[in-house]
Design brief:
Layout (H helix, E strand, L loop, with lengths): L1 H49 L3 H29 L1 H19 L5 H19 L2 H8 L2 H33 L2 H21 L14 H20 L3 H8 L1
Helix pairs in contact: 1-2, 1-4, 1-5, 1-6, 1-7, 2-3, 2-4, 2-8, 3-4, 3-7, 8-9
């Protein structure tokens, strides 16, 4: 009888963990694509408020993409070494804080800097979220869980222009970022309340700092080179 009770308790905890992980991963998969498509729509309003030119406005998008691209692979590897939950939860916290701070940004420069932090934290989230799903769900349930997260990604892309346009028109462009704060807070609550285990399949292995730095510099030079074309310096950056 005691064994049955214990088995039932273990199964109940496993189900609770799976539900929490799937819900948090779904939120995470929604955040970045939603924000990307919504911010694109809000650029005219941002430019009007800050009197920003086209180049400055383009960096609102590019800074996020560049930052997330640079850190995606390193954080994925770092999560395997120090713990995926640790990297994932830190990313959610930083993303929520940066979204909240953008609401109060007073210049185009501060907005771009905060967007860099958003890209940084987004890399922490996406570099570990799918790995956490594969750690929690067995092979027979993994495809279903991943399908839900992928659906959430495309839902974010589709909902961004609709919800973002409504928020920008009704409450201003800052409300787009404010909209993400409650989602982040719910995710943080679920992580620390429900996601007790840690996953670090490569614990103790070395992290390739040199390779990560070279990768980041090369990617930065590549994107910066495109912004300087057709100048000679732009072609130099691309060739490097």
């Amino acid at each position: 009888m005691e064994n049955q009770t214990g088995d039932h308790s273990v199964r109940s905890e496993e189900k609770s963990l799976k539900r929490s992980v799937l819900l948090v991963a779904t939120f995470a998969a929604f955040l970045t694509p939603f924000l990307g498509s919504a911010v694109n729509l809000a650029l005219p309003a941002i430019g009007k408020e800050f009197h920003a030119n086209a180049i400055s406005l383009s960096w609102i998008i590019s800074s996020f993409i560049l930052s997330s691209s640079i850190f995606l692979l390193p954080f994925g590897r770092l999560g395997d070494i120090v713990g995926r939950k640790k990297i994932f939860s830190t990313g959610i916290i930083l993303f929520t804080i940066s979204s909240f701070m953008i609401v109060f940004s007073r210049s185009i420069t501060s907005l771009i800097i905060l967007r860099i932090f958003q890209g940084f934290s987004s890399a922490m989230i996406f570099g570990t979220s799918l790995a956490i799903i594969t750690s929690v769900f067995p092979q027979g349930e993994r495809g279903h869980a991943m399908g839900i997260t992928v659906t959430s990604t495309y839902f974010g892309l589709s909902a961004g222009p609709v919800i973002g346009g409504f928020l920008t028109h009704s409450l201003g462009w800052r409300s787009i970022f404010a909209f993400l704060v409650p989602i982040g807070l719910i995710s943080i609550y679920l992580i620390f309340r429900k996601m007790k285990p840690e996953w670090a399949e490569a614990k103790g292995e070395k992290f390739d700092w040199k390779g990560s730095i070279i990768y980041g510099i090369a990617l930065s030079a590549f994107m910066y080179g495109f912004s300087k074309l057709p100048s000679t310096f732009g072609w130099i950056c691309l060739s490097s």
